[in-house]
Amino acid sequence: MHSSISSSRAPTTAHVVVLLLACALVCGLIEGGTACGFGRLSRMEHRREAEYRRAVAMHRGEHSSSVLVAGNSLLLEGVDFPRLQQEAGPGLDLQRTVVEGTFYLDWYYGLRRMFAEGAQPDAVVLVLNPTQLTSGSVGGDYTAHFLVDRSDVLRFAEESGADRNRMSSIALANLSFFYGARAEIRSWVLGQILPDLPSLSRNFHSPPRIPDSEGLREVAQQRLNRLRQLCQDHKAELVFVIPPSNEDAGTAAVSQAAATLGVPTLVPIAPGMLPLSDYSDRFHLNAQGASKFTRALAAALKQALSAAQDHDQSAALDSGIHSFTEQTRGPLAGSSSGDADPALHESGN
């Protein structure tokens, strides 16, 4: 009697190929299904994708200034955006794009990608607190997929301080929607099972460590200058906004760094000015706090962007006058030389 071991057959090359094809098919179905379907299931993902598409489609306005307003959950929950647009008036056409859990490096490369894909706003308003501006952290694999252009992946990984294992993870996240968004998918599934989980998890956030003001100012100046240069290369004005906080985490140092560079930096509500009852946790505003901040931000934005527009118009006028002077100076200078028009000499005789 033959044993089951002796009667088993070794896998052939054909079996291995079939198995690999089956695995590739499963992976393809998972990748395609999540890429096409997750945005339909998750309201958060649907909002992100819609906002990103609108941001990339922005063009410079003829009768109003097109303004891209970018940031993280501090913008999402701290600003009533429809009301902000209403109070800003018809002179500003505002488009928001929010990716939660993001920092400076995410948005530097995110703006690079948006500009490369065709975004042409008149101004970029970036809403981050001082810690998020100066931190070396990044938003994770999701932002590597959603905000970073494929040509920038290695630079993004190097600047984030990734080792080789982390670099490979970032590269795979950039290529694959499922791998890049796996944490978001997991959070969505948990949110369906435990709807109060996001609110509960906020209570576990530790307060940010505040670096010394000199070091913070130096890092802030370097990063704001880099953001300003990126925007200037694409003919956009940079405006930096520091949202309200219940304690000062370096607002003065960032404001000083921005003033040195000439970057408009708005602090519509100074740290510690809002009562704790205006916060849903230690960082995010509730509806009551958002109402106050929205009103203050709208007034500050109108003033800052109108001043920037007046400065640009003045610069353009000065440039036109200088160009006209240079054009007219040549003939006038030539007329006083020995090669002047003979008719002028005849009239003088």
CATH class: Alpha Beta
Q: Count of helical segments? A: 17
**Got a strand count?**
5
CATH fold node name? Rossmann fold
Rounded Rg:
28 Å
CATH fourth-tier homologous superfamily: SGNH hydrolase
Q: At CATH's second level, what is the architecture?
A: 3-Layer(aba) Sandwich
Main sheet characteristics: 5 strands, parallel
Strand content is 5-15%
pLDDT averaged over residues = 83
Query: What is the total number of structural domains?
Result: 1
Unreliable stretches covering 5 or more consecutive residues: 312-325, 330-349
- End-to-end CA span: 135 Å
Instruction: Bin the helical content.
Output: 55-70%
Major β-sheet strand ordering: 2-1-3-4-5
Structural class based on helices, strands and sheet pairing: alpha/beta
Could you state the order of secondary-structure elements as H and E? HHHEHHEHEHHHHHHHHEHEHH
Q: How would the global form be characterised?
A: globular
Can you walk me through this structure?
This protein is 61% helix and 7% strand. The chain has a single domain, classed as Rossmann fold, CATH 3.40.50. Helix 6 runs parallel beside helix 14 (213-233) and helix 9 packs antiparallel against helix 10. It has 349 residues and is of the alpha/beta class. It contains 17 helices and five strands.
